[in-house]
Amino acid sequence: GAVVSQHPSWVICKSGTSVKIECRSLDFQATTMFWYRQFPKQSLMLMATSNEGSKATYEQGVEKDKFLINHASLTLSTLTVTSAHPEDSSFYICSARGLAGVPYEQYFGPGTRLTVT
Amino acid sequence: AQSVTQLDSQVPVFEEAPVELRCNYSSSVSVYLFWYVQYPNQGLQLLLKYLSGSTLVKGINGFEAEFNKSQTSFHLRKPSVHISDTAEYFCAVRNQAGTALIFGKGTTLSVSS
After folding, report:
1. Cβ–Cβ gap A111/B42 under 8 Å
2. CA–CA distance, B81 with B78 (Å, rounded to integer)
3. Do A90 and A37 contact (CB within 8 A), yes or no?
4. 3-state secondary structure A70-108
5. Counting one residue from A and one from B, how many pairs have CB atoms under 8 Å apart?
6. Can you give the pLDDT of all 117 residues of chain A as single tens digits?
7. Given B42, B51, B90, which is nearest A43 (Cβ)?
8. Residue B76 in contact with residue B37, Cβ under 8 Å?
9. Per the CB < 8 Å rule, is B100 touching A108?
10. Which of A48, A97, B57, B64 has a CB 3.0–4.6 Å from the CB of A56, allowing a cystine?
């Protein structure tokens, strides 16, 4: 089946630093990738949608200058949290949708837990 | 706009008992419906989906769901649960023209012996 990986699985950083999270589709080409944020005991909130080779589309209320998304290839998207603060601590999950196969299904990565101290 | 309501935030059940996790959606257009399961500190795994056709959908791990258009519901059921079914369950909707999934707030299923 389709596999999506995320790296790192968890990261701790100091306030004011930047952190990059990678999302890779391992065995399929992902035309579209999605980034979600999940607070403890809460649902997934869509942050942005990115298509390979074009700028990401951010959801209302998500700061595009703070959460930089790059989708440079059909198998890799990155989310960079710039100048991180403790309130950015969260579980970040990516998902990917492929070119072929089941067009309506998204495949989710295992998530990255970010803790900002 | 679409929305998803999961009517129960927590559902405690005993092992081998049946369970139903409720999900209602609102949308003015045709939608696709999904149920995902999330184990602690992990991503989401697709349990089942409704795209079209038969309203009774069977998924993995013995789960099934029934799409009811008149009641705008997509409840998840399992006739006999196991301890290993303890997890967070999310109902999600996506319209046919859209791309992203809209998730409900989740239901915590706790199975005890």
Report:
1. yes
2. 6
3. yes
4. EEEECCEEEEEECCCCHHHCEEEEEEEEECCCCCCCCEE
5. 48
6. 688 999 999 999 999 999 999 999 998 888 889 999 998 878 889 999 998 888 899 999 999 999 999 988 889 999 999 999 999 999 999 999 876 555 567 889 999 999 999
7. B90
8. no
9. no
10. A48
